[in-house]
Please model this.
Amino acid sequence: MNIDKLLSNLNKIPICSKTIYIVSTPIGNINDISFRSLNILDNVNYILTEDTRISSKLLNFFSIKKKILSFNDINEKYKSKKILNEILKYELSIAIISDKGTPLINDPGYFLIREAIKLNINIIPIPGPCAAIAAISASGLPINKFCYEGFIPRTKNKRIDLFKSIKFEKKTVIFYESYNRIINSLNDMINIFGEKRNIVLAKDITKKYENFIRTDIISLLKILENKKYNKGEIVLLIGGDDSEDYKDININKIKKIIDILYEKNNKKILYTLSEIFNINKNIIYKILINNKVN
Model:
């Protein structure tokens, strides 16, 4: 590959007006940024970024001198209207980046992009690094179908509700988690999924101390209790439920109880069944509605 030729042609790639570029940036290794991403960032009118301090380091490394604006969850709705009006009025091209990885995935930008589409503003994604995709590709878990759940909730009740709702999910499930909450999350997972469900922890992907731990939940808990992480980004991947005929067995049990208790119309039924079968009460409610006795 002729790197010098690629670099010399970098600025010859045309930039579209009235356009928002969704530009992926490295998640750890700065060498993972693409030539196309650098070209876009160097030639748009300005760049939206979640944290200007972090993005400035990336841009300065590649000698890109471009105006950057803070764009986060707090100010997204407030700033979007002004940004979209400027794009249309002055035929601007802008880029949106996140601190790391692919924008909009657990990062600001959804509202802006949704409103831009309504105004027929061009939206162009510039593919690149994504921690979730990188993690599952190397996990060893089934990858043909998977679910992405984002960050695990901070509070215990919300965590348990989430885990119950996916207890019988057949697909691999991807989470992001903080190092200072992972022990609590694993303990809750054991209560819902059991000790032996397959799990993979991916830490500091693409960085010097990148690490994958492929094991079951109880073993991972024991490992982390002896070696607690005090920093770093973590992706958790849970293997899908591989039990056989669980749906028919549990639904039949629930149906029998519903037939007996339905006429009482007591809300406690939902909570009782949820506790008995260790299933999210919203799933119980759906079964109740679908099997209502006329």
